[in-house]
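Supplementary Methods, section 5.1.

A reviewer requested that the exact input to the structure prediction be made available. We therefore reproduce it here, unchanged from the version used in the analyses.
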Amino acid sequence: MSEILCQWLNQEVKVSQTVSPKSFAKAFSSGYLIGEVLHKFELQDDFSKFTESRVSSSKLNNFSRLEPTLHLLGVQFDQNVAHNIITEKPGAATKLLYQLYTVLQKKRKSGLTGLEMQTMQPLTNIRLQNMKSEAFRDRLRNLIPRQTDFNLMRVTHRFQEKYKHMKEDFVQMHFEKLENFQKLKEEQRCFNIEKQRLSRRRQNEIMAKIQAAIIQIPKPASNRTLKALEAQKMMKKKKEAEDVANEIKKFEALIKKDLQAKESASKTSLDTAGQTTADLLNTYSDDDYIKKIQKRLEEDAFAREQREKRRRRLLMDQLIAHEAQEEAYREEQLINRLMRQSQQERRIAVQLMHVRHEKEVLWQNRIFREKQYEERRLKDFQDALDREAALAKLAKIDFEEQALREKEVHEQIAVERAQARYQKHYSMCAEILDQILDLSTKVADYRMLTNNLIPHKLMHDWKELFFNGKPIYDQASIKHLSAKPSVEQLIELEKRDFLDSNDYDDYKNMVGEWALPEEMVDSLPPSNNCILGHVIRRLVEKSLPPQVESAEPELPSFAIKGCLLGKTFSGKTTAVKFLQKDFPIQILSIDTLVQEAIQAFHDNEKITEALPIQNEPEEKASLVLQEKAKESQDLQNVFSAAPFPLETLTETEDKTMLSAETNKTPKSEEVKSSDSFSELTVRAQLGAKSEQLLKKGKSISDMLLVSIMVNAINQIPLDQGWVLDGFPMTLNQAKLLEEALTGYDRNLIELEEKKKQISTLAVDPTASKEVPPPPSAFDFVMLLDISDNSSLDRMNDIMAEALSSETPREDINQRVAAKNQDMDEDQNLRDQIHHRIVGFLDNWPLLEQWYTEPENILIKINAEVDKESLCQKVKEMFMTEIMKKENKVKKKLEEKEAEKKEVSLTEPSSPAAPPPPPPEPEREKEIHPQQERSKTLAKGKPPSESLHGKQESSQEGKGKKGEASLKRKGSKGKSAGGKVPVKKSPAESTNTSPTPVGPPPPKPGSEEWVYVDEPIAEEIPSFLVPYWELIESSYIDSIKKVLRHLREDRHTVLAYLYDIRTGFQQFLRRPDHKQNFVSQWQTDFNSLPDDLWDDEETKAELHQRLNDLRDRLWDICDAQKEEAEQERLDIINESWLQDSMGITMNHFFSLMQAELNRFQDTKRLLQDYYRGMECKIPTDDNKKFTRVPLVQLCTKDVLECQLRIPLVPRISISLDLAMSKSKSRALLKDKIDYTLENVELNFEADEKLVIDTWQQASSVISHMVTAEIHQRLMEEEKENQSADAKDKSPQMSANKKVKNEPPKKKKEDKKAKGKSPPTAEASPVILTVEEMAEMEKRNKLRLKIKEEHLAALQFEEIATQFRLELIKTKALAFLEELVLKAVDVYKLMEKWLGERYLKEMASVEKLTEVARYHIETSTKIQNELYLNQEDFFINGDVKVFPDPPPPIRPPPVEKEENGTLTIEQLDNLREQFLEIAPKGIIGNKAFADILLDLVTLNLGTNNIPSSWMHLTQAELQELTSLLVVNSEFVDWRKFLLVTSLPWPIPLEEELLKTLQRFKAVDDEQLGTVTFKQYMQAGLWFKGDEDVKIPENPLEPLPFNRQEHLIEFFFRLFADYEKNPPQLDYTQMLLYFACHPDAVEGVYRALSVAIGTHVFQPIETPNLITEKTSFLTDMSPIAESPEPEENVISEEREVREEKGEEIPENANTEKISMETLLRVFRGGNEAQDPNRFSSQLKMENIYAENFIKVFQDLDAKNLEAIEVAVLLKHPFIQDLISSYSDYRIPDIKMILQRSEHVQGSDGERSPSRLTEEKK
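The structure derived from this sequence is encoded token-by-token as follows.
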């Protein structure tokens, strides 16, 4: 912004000074440039008086002249803006210049000069502006300081900056000086340390020399004399003295060097310091300073010399002492040398005695040591026994603790499992709840879309998704799928496939949305095409290899097989061993078997050794073991005995799935070589593999465990039962074991059943044989059920028994080793028990489901019983299972015997004559089909008769459709029955003869019909089977895709209809401008002058204006109605409905196309199949498949599309043609709407198009069937003609062509049977009997093939025609529903349009009525008239012109009641007393005079109530006497407090709570509070909350006296000398502690002063009552009112109760002397010391007495003492009983008495009062 302004100023305005953004504020701070800008725009005429200077006077002048011009332009400018610009505040000048820039641009556009603008303003504005300008100059002059002030400020600022710099330099110098001083100090310290170190070193050297001299004293020679010794001593002394002197000299030299260095350093430092100080302050001269330094140096040198002297003297004293010590030592040495000889002799004698004594001690010690050794051995033995017992006890304790820990761990695991289950269930419930919410919200959304009419299909789809756990809302878009779709996209694909499958099932089964309509209920849907199903099954069986079914044993075994399962320590092994004792069964434990297998591998068990063992079961084995193969010496036979090959186990040791490979060679990476490994037995090889896994630290796989178990089972004889102990443990083991023992895989069987359940287009009912469930590997499975705690308890019991029953061993090492081994085993068991229990709990639900679902063989036994009971239960259950097995086996044997008898009975009844053998070339081909045919006849039962009935009824129902179809279908029925009239040849007509009448022949596809199973070529199934799969997949995919599009289009239609509904509603609610006209009319109406309201002409004019307004509003309504109708027509004329109907028709046409394609493909398949059976070459059908035409939606020509699929153009009905037609549909029953006529006619055209397409497809199918029948007849005629020609040929040619004749004869037979009923025809004369029989047989076969083919084709035709008709019906219903929905929406739009128009017109009428009423009543319309679309109301919230101001309520006024002073009177008295006695104490005489003056001089002042006007002087003195303190003074604050009654007298608890609140507010604990804190804390009472506000606004509010009293108490007790006023809250509460009972008031005051409750002693109440009665007798008031007596009695009762309930630690708080003086007015200061000398004396008496009391109570230094101790003192008791300052006097009795006297004597005159006063 500043750059734009600078460009404008510099280039356009061209000011005298160049302005830049940086210097913007400084350039405009003087105001000169602003004046120049205004002058250039001809606005500032006095620019010549502007000055460019920057002094304050020039700035003031400039801005004072600018101010009127800126205000004239309307720029916001005041003294603050001017001050900001002058002080160069950032942004101030920029803001002003920007406003000026905008205003000047506007002014330039208007073209007005400054003078013109000024003359255009009113005169009043000019005067006001002049006044404002003068005020602006004054304020600006005050804001801008004078130039001298500026100069002074500049000078002071410069000096301040200089002072600051000097101060910084001085600080820096001082800091450097300190650093130098510290540095010197540090150097001195280092020098001293080095010096001390050197001195210590020298001293140590001296001491070392001294020690060396002392120790190394040479042994004096024997011939030395004493003189020589003394001379030697003297020499040594001299030498030592010389050494000491030399060392002293060296030391002095070193000291001198150090002193010189120090002096030089000090001189340099002093020089630098002197220079710096000389620069700062030249207070001293250099000479004086140098003299002082020299003097100090001399003093230091002298002190140093003195120190050196003292040091030398000390060293000399030390040397002298050292020499004396050495002398004494030498003398002692000399004496010892002289006496050395005698000591040595004594020492030798003593040594001899010691040797003798030591020998005796050694002998005694040896004896004593032997005794100790013996005692030690006994003690060690006893300690070992005790240790064993303690260890056993500790082991038992540890065992119990371990058991408790195990239980805790188990409980924790159980809790975790429970939490996991809860979390699982919680997540499931949360997921279901989310789905419920999704379903609810989806339903709510579609209720909104469909007006609460949700289609049944949508609801059904949502329910299916909800029940199958699919998300209802779309998770992701699947329009553009990537190569790796996301999880959400996969879910959406699954959901789409699921809905497609459901829709296809509904379509196929004709239920739900595709249920049969009423007109088609009679013609039931066609049943399954049995012939086609048989053809498909036969082709599939031909294409697939034959499956070898597992053979079952003919004689079932009586041996029982089972297993016992349960948790660890549930008693499995015990129960199994008990069973083994009583029954001949074999027990198999997987642990034992694994150990035996590993041991066999270690023992190198060979096959030759195991042969005798293996041959025994082979001799007794039945068919089951023969399937698994016998064991032999061959390696392959050995491997086949195991259920899984060992090579497979070695390759897939970590997998759990079985392998199908059985003939692999073992790998070269085995533990041993292949030759040696192959010689081992199966058990040894399995053991080798197990050991290999265990050595690697892996667990043995389930496959290997099952192999070991099955190998052990194979060793058991067939007639002997076996029971597995604790195996299988997992579901995978159970599956593998069952597959190994039975040969069945239950999962594969379930998959095959699911494949069979998949819907196919044709099913063979004869092949629907239910597969029996596979037999179970076990006869029973017993579960020994036991709780986890019981399992843990049993483990602990077993381990405890093992600990207690340990047999003692002789060898301690063996015992320790065995103990360690047992401990390791126990620890392993403890570590594994939890894993085993958890593993069982995890695997058991799956195992339980496995053993209960197909056949419940599970038996649960409660194992939480003793051993005998458990074994007995297991035995009983085992015997029961044995009986069941025997009964089952006997039943099977009886069934097999019955089957054998039936077979033997049916064999003689079979025809004896077998059919003639076929010719030799065809014999090989017919062997396999005959076997298949026999199998097909043996399998299952034929279809029921109901299917046949349905077929006939469907044929009959279908035959009633039309004459053409009736004839065609009748001919088909006849041809199917063999009664089709065909042209006969003359030979056949002559040879025919009547046949005997018999039962009707069976129809093809019925139960009695025997299908033709002639051999076909191998290429045909390989081609036709994938062709049929392609037919099925393409048909199902097409149907699903079309149904999916229909489902999606339904959602699209609902959304579109909702959008056009909501869009039309929004269009209807579009804003109009009616309110503007209404507001303008209301404004004009209200602006009418008041004197014209009653004029009739004015009213007529207003009525006319109102009519104009109404007509205008009606025109707006009509225009909006026309726009809405046009919008509705545009919506109706949109092509959406036509496009939607076209797309829907195309979808249904696609369904018809799918049905037509299925029929054509099925016809082709049947034709190829039956032609293959007839050994004919399949015909090449070059004709293209028939295409159902689709509706052309776009007008563009697409050539490729037209080549593939034919398109039919849409027939759109024009509006003229629609008007000419008189037919009306049922869609528009109510009335004819020509806007919807086009929709109806288009629907009729679409309906006709659907019917035509259906008829076209139906006729195509009929033509196909007719063509197929015609083709059959033509082929038969050709064959008959060729046969006739060949009959006439010679016999040689007939003999050569023997092979070609039988087919021709077949054709002739077929032709004849097709023309007439089957009759026995005569054979030609030239043929033999055998040839004739062969030809007859071939003709019959050909006729049967034809019948079967045509019946299958006719069946498909009927089914296809039915489905096409259903599609046609549903298409018409769907289109009709779509049109109805659209028409309903269009009608609803018309309804909304009409209703809105009527409502708008009605609202305009209402507006007119309201306006006419106000016109007639001549009243203004204050509230706004609101006309919004169709709503009209009078808006009470908006007023056009304001209400007249309400009357102001007068302030509340306090009234006098019962002689009580008002708050105003109390404040007046407080101000007067405060002027007279600020401290609060006043003399009683002066107080009485003041009251008398107030009473006598109150005329017109209203300072006191009227009831006080009648008080006499005696009564006033009596009133004063009640308030007297110490018989001379009155506390006027207490007087005002008493006269302000009534107010709630506080209880002691309320006073203490109020005190605590004040202390909480007083943060600094000063004992005073401000008014704000006072109001925040509050008193024990509040203002009157139930203040009733009077209804009359002129009546004042009631006066809240209590609220004003609270504020008055602050003014009464606050100290106004302080600012702000402070209130001593403790002193105030002491006033409030006053009570009608003086003693109670004292105790209340003590409680307030201390801060806690003070209990009265029990003895005091009587004394207090006596005292108070005495005081009341002495007082002039004889009686007190009843309320006070009640208060006193209540307080006494409360006090007595408190006295009774005094706690033990009562009154333990301490009270100080200051607090006591404060309570008993010891701290009050009198106003006048001369007048109040007696009061001061009394205060001194209290203080002295209190000091004596404290001294009597042993209070040292007058320390605080306990209240209880203080109250026991007699002086305090007397003082409390006689102290009356805390008594509330009753002054109302005096007032009542004066009123009584006034009532009796009449009013008292003022003269009487003055006389009384005198």
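The first helix runs from residue 2 to 13. These observations are discussed further in the main text.
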